[in-house]
Design a protein that fits this description.
The complex is a heterodimer of chains A (115) and B (111). Chain A has no helices and eleven strands. Chain A is an all-beta fold and 115 residues long. Chain A is globular. Chain B contains no helices and eleven strands. In chain B, the strands form two sheets. In chain B, strands 2, 4, 5, 9, 10 and 11 form a six-stranded mixed sheet that branches. A five-stranded antiparallel sheet of chain B has the order 1-3-8-7-6, with no helix packed on it. The chains are: A mainly beta (115), B mainly beta (111). The interface between A and B is medium-sized, with 22 and 21 residues.
């Protein structure tokens, strides 16, 4: 039973193309995230949605557009891909609770390579 | 943005040895977390720390939340080959949902 799944696992594409990465969670969580991990393994949050509403929007080029059709899905669409977009993109989800840290469960990642 | 300074960047140890890594920040964090990432996988939470001075164990792993709230360390005792991976510290500041990650410590364990 996969908790947080992403498709595709690998994505190789040419500069200038538009591509989408999909994420689904079956944990019943109300919050989902997109992270980018660069070649040096640095993890940085990009976006977060709570109940389909955008709550975190880091300084990310507007070529990146997240879309949450429902609580269980958060997709990432990237327009006009650039070489610097090559990275591993992780989706994560968590459930809002009254106090304390709400553990984020990460997907397996999508390795995007822009040629 | 906020940064966490994690060290060492990498470690090469023999099976059975103990390992220690730490994370520091110039800012106060209310929650400190330690994650492990294995090749081709996403990070998995190992330990969460919520109070300054807190010491928490998870099997052979022990982590502490620094008393100043600006640092945390993770110890792994009696390392085994399956401990290999990248260990990340992460922090949450008060009122924020945004996790800030350290740059990771890559651990290699030689059998």
């Amino acid at each position: 039973d996969t908790a947080v799944s992403q498709t595709p696992k690998y994505l190789v594409t040419q500069m200038g193309n538009d591509k989408s990465i999909k994420c689904e969670q079956n944990l019943g969580h109300d919050t989902m995230y997109w992270y980018k991990q660069d070649s040096k393994k640095f993890l940085k949050i990009m976006f977060s949605y709570n109940n389909k509403e955008l709550i975190i929007n880091e300084t990310v080029p507007n070529r990146f557009s997240p879309k949450s059709p429902d609580k269980a899905h958060l997709n990432l669409h990237i327009n006009s891909l650039e070489l610097g977009d090559s990275a591993v993109y992780f989706c994560a989800s968590s459930q809002t609770g009254p106090t304390g840290y709400n553990e984020q469960f990460f997907g397996p990642g999508t390795r995007l390579t822009v040629l | 943005g906020q940064q966490l300074n994690q060290s060492p960047q990498s470690m090469f140890i023999q099976e059975g040895e103990d390992v220690s890594m730490n994370c520091t920040s110039s800012s106060i964090f209310n929650t400190w977390l330690w994650y492990k990432q294995e090749p081709g996988e996403g990070p998995v939470l190992l330990i969460a720390l919520y109070k300054a001075g807190e010491l928490t164990s998870n099997g052979r792993l022990t982590a502490q939340f620094g008393i100043t709230r600006k640092d945390s360390f993770l110890n792994i005792s009696a390392s085994i080959p399956s401990d290999v991976g990248i260990y990340f510290c992460a922090g949450l500041q008060g009122g924020s949902e945004k996790l800030v990650f350290g740059k990771g410590t890559k651990l290699t364990v030689n059998p």
